[in-house]
Write a structure and sequence with these properties.
Layout: H1 21-25, E1 36-38, H2 45-50, E2 54-59, H3 62-73, H4 78-95, H5 97-110, H6 113-122, H7 149-168, E3 170-175, H8 178-183, E4 190-193, H9 210-222, E5 226-234, H10 241-245, E6 251-258, E7 270-277, H11 283-289, E8 298-299, H12 304-313, E9 318-321
Parallel strand pairs: 1-2, 1-4, 2-3, 4-5, 8-9
Antiparallel strand pairs: 5-7, 6-7, 6-9
Helix pairs in contact: 3-6, 4-5, 4-7, 5-6
């Protein structure tokens, strides 16, 4: 079977869902004619691959919203990105990390979207992190040659893909709280939520705690739309307690996934990802969610030990956990 192509967006982040996009797409209700709504847009990788004709893309990080609004309006174009990165990349090569910090200071003063893109692709480990005053504070990746010709072309191609998408379809970008975004959804819409993972490190513009997790749960439970929620299920060291206490009443699908998070490779570990939905899996979706034909195990959300043993034996396979 041919591997599905996933388009990577120009803005990167730790925990980006690039490798999980095909799996998430299999969760979508069929037929699907409503709007795609993301209260936690992040990099936008899921929506930009689902390619809905209409979407509401929201986030509390104003710099993400500003970048994609500028792209949508034509204030940023692929040609402008190429010229900008060639100019600033040459200065970075000549001046070294001092130029990176010059751009960082300029961005924190004027918040230009192209400066944000430059920092995002030249900072340490692809992090998006801000201090309490709202200043971008991620250090340099220590690669003065970062913006080589091939790398600039790669970014320009990523920008070109999203640029064409935004000119063709009806996308609305909003900087607002997730509760306001979810309240905009109607019965025909699909809400995809990828909040910061509770109990784990998150380099998000705003933090995430138990109160927000509970608020998200209550808001989605009352929503008329179909929702799909990304969260973590467990890793080799601990379990996500909110799977049982909050989300266990819904259908949950899981898969083993490796995140490249952490400054050193020995700090980067596999994790079992969970997708929670209030929609019922159709028989076809159940088969599609299970990548390998032999993987047809079914568990309750409380049987975490069995799930952990399953993933150790079948690390590349998906399984469905029945929560209802």
């Amino acid at each position: 079977m041919m591997k599905e192509k996933v388009h990577v967006p120009p803005i990167k982040s730790q925990g980006i869902k690039t490798k999980l996009v095909p799996w998430i797409k299999r969760m979508m209700p069929q037929p699907y004619t409503g709007r795609w709504i993301e209260p936690f847009m992040g990099t936008g990788v899921v929506a930009f691959n689902v390619r809905p004709q209409a979407a509401i893309m929201a986030d509390t990080n104003p710099h993400l919203i500003a970048f994609y609004k500028a792209l949508q309006k034509g204030e940023i174009t692929p040609d402008k990105v190429r010229a900008f990165l060639q100019k600033e990349g040459a200065a970075l090569l000549k001046e070294g990390e001092s130029h990176y910090y010059k751009i960082r200071e300029r961005f924190n003063s004027h918040h230009h979207p192209l400066d944000f893109l430059f920092l995002n692709r030249a900072c340490f480990n692809g992090m998006i992190r801000f201090n309490r005053k709202g200043g971008f504070n991620v250090p340099f990746c220590r690669k003065p040659h970062r913006y080589a010709k091939a790398y600039i072309t790669k970014i320009v191609n990523q920008v070109a893909y999203v640029y064409a998408l935004l000119q063709r379809y009806d996308y609305t970008f909003l900087c607002q709280d997730f509760t306001k975004t979810i309240a905009m959804a109607g019965p025909d819409d699909v809400i995809y939520c990828d909040p910061p993972y509770i109990g784990r490190h998150a380099d998000y513009f705003n933090g995430w705690d138990e109160d927000k997790e509970v608020t998200l749960f209550r808001t989605l439970k009352e929503a008329e739309a179909t929702f799909i929620l990304s969260t973590w299920h467990h890793n080799d060291y601990r379990e996500n307690p909110y799977i049982a206490s909050l989300w266990g009443g819904f259908d949950i699908a899981t898969c083993a996934h490796f995140y490249h998070i952490g400054g050193k490779e020995n700090h980067r570990n596999p994790m079992v990802e969970a997708l929670v939905t209030n929609g019922r899996f159709t028989p076809t979706q159940k088969e599609n969610l299970v990548v390998h034909a032999g993987c047809k195990a079914s568990y309750t959300s409380r049987n975490l030990k069995a799930a952990k043993n399953f993933v150790k034996l079948h690390p590349d396979e998906f399984m469905v956990i029945r929560g209802r």
